[in-house]
Specification:
The structure holds two protein chains of two kinds.
Chain A lengths: L7 E5 L4 H5 L5 H10 L5 E5 H4 L8 H14 L2 E6 L15 H18 L3 E4 L8 H11 L2 E6 L8 H13 L4 E5 L10 H9 L4 H10 L6 H14 L4 H13 L18 E5 L13 H10 L5 E6 L9 H17 L2
Helix pairs in contact in A: 2-4, 5-6, 8-11, 9-10, 10-11, 12-13
Chain B lengths: L7 E9 L2 E6 L7 E2 L3 E8 L2 E2 L6 E4 L2 E4 L10 E2 L5 E6 L8 E10 L12 E7 L2
The chains are: A alpha/beta, B mainly beta.
């Protein structure tokens, strides 16, 4: 059982991307399903996934969303916004003033929809934070940057943000850890998906050899490609095997300890929780106590990303993940 | 095929007085500005289609495919299909055709990333 004053659990609707893309649910339908299954009440939503009129939600959209919140008892915790700086592929990023305005539009939408937290991304350069922090403060919103694979504490982009956070001292800025950056191994379900796509065992072995090596993810992916091509593996099989380089990294799970104080929200990234309540790749038993014992009082939303490579029942996976998080929080 | 890999839309292929209309799905988890979406190639029964006069339609609006790179503030809602209009081409209703589509995306928050997508499907003309 979760202590009422300790960390809370919840879910991001991103976990149900397969069900969303295949139009099994519209937004009210999905929210009702989450509530019916007891996977709330705390929810995160990606603005650009669930709201057709994003980044500028209309009064009507906001009113209808609030009606569904009232019907379901769900609690809007975090709206994921996007730092879309590279609007024209291969060309210069958009000008800073446009990027700032783009974030303000999304922050206004977050406020209108009733979300207290907005998730941003490192594509927003830290020198623009002085323009956005007071704006978020005025709206009553906390903007947290998502620390996602391959990043973790010590990465240059994270350090540049940390320095700006120190300089500004704004209560409207913080971290949103995503545990993908501290995976201890490649999930077996991901390897199985590569096998199903046709990857041979020798290619899987090569992936398992290169993935944990030190170095940049894209360089390691290039190394796998080079060696696998030389060994005669098909490009399509190499692409299937390379997913591991792009969505997870093997930084030290204990490194989150440096970020607990400024953590405003957590993405509980996971790939599959087994019958014994263990995550396949991420050592929750090591990571969650850091936040529990460090005084984190926010929400961890279950974020199942297995949909990037397979089609298991996302609702069942989220149920298992929440049970695991509750168990570890209660052990404190 | 995973849902996120699908690029030929459920609405399939339609032929009308103005031309062919092919449904397309966005192969990503979120809506993207059309400027980051590239319709690279279409072929019908193995023959490449000239896309010079093609248009794109989404949510009741339409523009030239050739100008799509400028559409930075028009978003493809990820749950909906877009339609590729091929003016001047027609196929008899009810006939079956092998349609191939190549559609690439460059997510605008991940510098340098380009995701290539290709799908072939047998479609019956509506």
């Amino acid at each position: 059982m979760t202590n009422a004053t300790g960390p809370q659990v919840g879910v991001t609707l991103y976990s149900f991307t397969n069900e969303w893309l295949t139009r099994q649910f519209d937004l009210p339908g999905l929210m009702h399903e989450v509530a019916r299954r007891g996977l709330g009440p705390n929810i995160e939503i990606i603005g650009f996934q669930s709201f057709k009129d994003f980044p500028d939600v209309s009064d009507d959209t906001a009113a209808r969303f609030k009606d569904v919140l009232a019907e379901t008892g769900l609690n809007p915790i975090s709206l994921a916004i996007n730092s879309d700086r590279f609007m024209k592929p291969g060309q210069q990023p958009i000008p800073d003033d446009m990027l700032v305005e783009y974030h303000k539009r999304q922050l206004r939408s977050a406020a209108k929809l009733g979300f207290p937290i907005a998730r941003s991304q490192f594509a927003l350069p830290p020198h623009l934070l002085p323009d956005l922090a007071p704006y978020a403060e005025d709206l009553g919103i906390v903007m947290g940057v998502e620390v996602h694979a391959p990043m973790c504490w010590g990465h240059p982009a994270v350090q540049a943000y940390a320095e700006m956070y120190d300089k500004l001292g704004s209560p409207a800025l913080g971290w949103i850890p995503d545990f993908s950056g501290t995976s201890s191994r490649i999930p077996e379900s991901m390897l199985d998906a590569a096998r199903k796509a046709g990857a041979q065992e020798s290619l899987i072995d090569l992936l398992k050899e290169i993935w944990p090596e030190p170095g940049m993810s894209h360089e390691k992916a290039g190394k796998l490609r080079e060696r696998a091509l030389a060994a005669g593996h098909a490009p399509a099989h190499i692409q299937a095997a390379s997913l591991a380089f792009f969505i997870l990294a093997n930084n030290d799970p204990k490194s989150w300890a440096h970020m607990v104080d400024r953590t405003v929200h957590i993405h509980g990234k996971f790939y599959g929780v087994d019958d014994n309540g263990q995550e396949e790749a991420i050592d929750y038993e090591t990571i969650l106590p850091l936040f529990r014992d460090g005084g984190f009082k926010g929400t961890i939303v279950s974020e199942w990303e297995g949909h990037a490579y397979d089609a298991r029942d996302a609702f069942e996976q989220v149920r298992r993940h929440q049970a695991m998080c509750r168990r570890i929080f209660a052990e404190g | 095929m995973l849902p996120v890999e699908r690029i030929i839309g459920e609405e399939g292929l339609e032929s009308s007085a103005e031309g062919l209309r092919l449904a397309m799905r966005l192969p990503w988890y979120r809506s993207l500005p059309f400027s980051t979406v590239e319709v690279e190639a279409v072929s019908i029964d193995g023959e490449a289609v000239d896309l010079a006069g093609a248009e794109v339609e989404h949510d009741g609006k339409r523009w030239a495919l050739a100008e799509q790179g400028e559409e930075t503030d028009r978003f493809w809602f990820v749950r909906d299909s877009s339609f590729l209009i091929l003016p001047g081409r027609n196929l008899p209703a009810g006939t079956e055709h092998e349609v191939s589509l190549t559609l690439n995306i460059s997510p605008p928050y991940i510098p340098g990333m380009k995701r290539f997508n290709h799908q072939t499907a047998k479609l019956s003309v509506n």
